[in-house]
Amino acid sequence: MMRLVTNEPVWDLEFDEKGRLTAPAEADFLDQVIAEGVEDLFIFSHGWGTSQDRARALYDEMFPMIRDAAAGTAGIGRVGFAGIYWPSLWFPPTQATPPPAVAATQAGNGAVVDLSAGTAALSGTEIADSLQPGFADPAQQQTVMEIGRLIDQGEEAVGSNESDAQKEERLREIHQLLTSLVPPTPQDQFEDSGETALLLTADPKTGYQAAAEAFGSAPPGSATQGIGDWFHHAINGAKDAMRVLSYTIMKTRAGDIGRDGLGPLLETLQGRSSVRVHLIGHSFGARLVSFALSGISGPANSPVASLLLLQGAFSHWSFARAQDNPFGSAGALNTFADRVHGPLVATFSVFDWAVGVWYPKASFLAQEDAQAETSGRWKGMGADGYQAVNPSKDRVMPADGDTDYMFTSGTFYRVNAAGVINNVQGEPFSGAHSDIRKRPVVALAAAAAAAHA
Fold first, then answer.
1. pLDDT value at position 112?
2. Under a CB-based contact definition with an 8 Å cutoff, are residues 84 and 15 in contact?
3. Structure pTM?
4. Sequence spans of domains, the chain
């Protein structure tokens, strides 16, 4: 346990990829929370490919800001903080083409936008080197490195006199290894999983060319109209498939850690104390804290007093009712919102390109209909907030942070944060996705915490 300079306790909660709490010992953590007399415990989870050092830097900056925002706020008592550390993995940085204007990414305006995720500039080895540390299993680490090697060999074969059959065999070898790394999808928990259509396709030749088109590694129409060297496009698409694989694994892992690790820990805490827990998650960390609700056996066993999702990188249908969403199935978390005794809050911003532009492209690879990519079917939480939920209300985050959100318990809130989460400088791929270290954001966290039942 550490402390802020103002003496509030801070715990580091470290989970492995299976959701096991590896440090501190569970009993020690629970005993210390009780001994410290904490009344309101803020638990924050990082997202994306965040190293432990980068996660710590995030928490070191955010926790004192939250403490200051909460100080003297009615309904909030003695505060404590816990930062979650989990093995996220992500792609190496790429020089993506940023959207030229917010309007250009929206559906129905007739704009033609030539976007590229910048994947083609990377080698297979560079991609593998970035992803390999995210796997604990040595066999999986070796598989990742082998995929990278085979992609590089494929690039060397571009323009050669190999037959199409030989080139297709190269793709099948890559795809077989890639498929072996795809995590299983729970059958009883619906969530959009369009990206698995690419990862589990029986036709990598076509699928990888489609991926290259979606992520801008190949010009539009390449796969269907035979534009250019199909094998060159497919090899670039294999790199994009590795990006989608990393996205899929992190998405699944965040849910597993939340459901199997954090959720049961919170239920045990509820059984021993009256502490109120305020869950905050950024990006895929938003999925982690949300899925913690499904690891709590019932409302009476939950200490969760508020839920705040900052630019969540998971389906905006996750809490949805079946009758009101295009998939016709209830979201994976539809029956777990009652584990939150206060408001359920989610920020969104049109300047978040990671969730608003690239996230739907990964899921769109299911290609169930011609308009799917722009219809909103595949969007993430950070693009437009909770969808098909009830009761729900809309709010706007003011740039100065001073507002009475008038939150009430048991209500979903979509908070338009475009006036605050909007700094895209130096982030051509993710845009403002991580632009959350701001006073209005922590003021939102305090307002949600103060509105508990």
1. 46
2. yes
3. 0.93
4. 2-89+251-450, 102-248
**Among 231, 233, 251, 242, CA closest to 178:** 242
Extract the tokens encoding 333: 């978390």
SS (H, E, C) 337-373: HHHCCCCEEEEECCCEHHHHHHHHHHHHCCCCCCCCC
Q: Which one, of 436, 282, 315, lies nearest residue 383 by Cα?
A: 315
What does the alpha-carbon distance between residue 77 and residue 80 come to, in Å, rounded to a whole number? Answer: 10
Please report which confidence band the pLDDT of residue 104 belongs to, taking 50, 70 and 90 as the band edges: very low
**DSSP H or E run through 27:** helix 26-35
Angle (CA) 30-289-102 rounded to 5° is 150
Q: Which residues contact 218 (CB under 8 A, 6 or more apart)?
A: 209, 212, 227, 228, 233, 236, 237
Distance CA 322, CA 229 (A): 43
Class of residue 158 by CB neighbours under 10 A (exposed 0-12, middle 13-18, buried 19+): middle
Name the least confident of 26-30, 241-245, 298-302, 372-376: 372-376
What is the DSSP-derived secondary structure letter of residue 43? E
From the candidate CATH numbers 3.10.620, 3.40.50, 2.60.120, 3.50.80, the one assigned to the domain spanning 2-89+251-450: 3.40.50
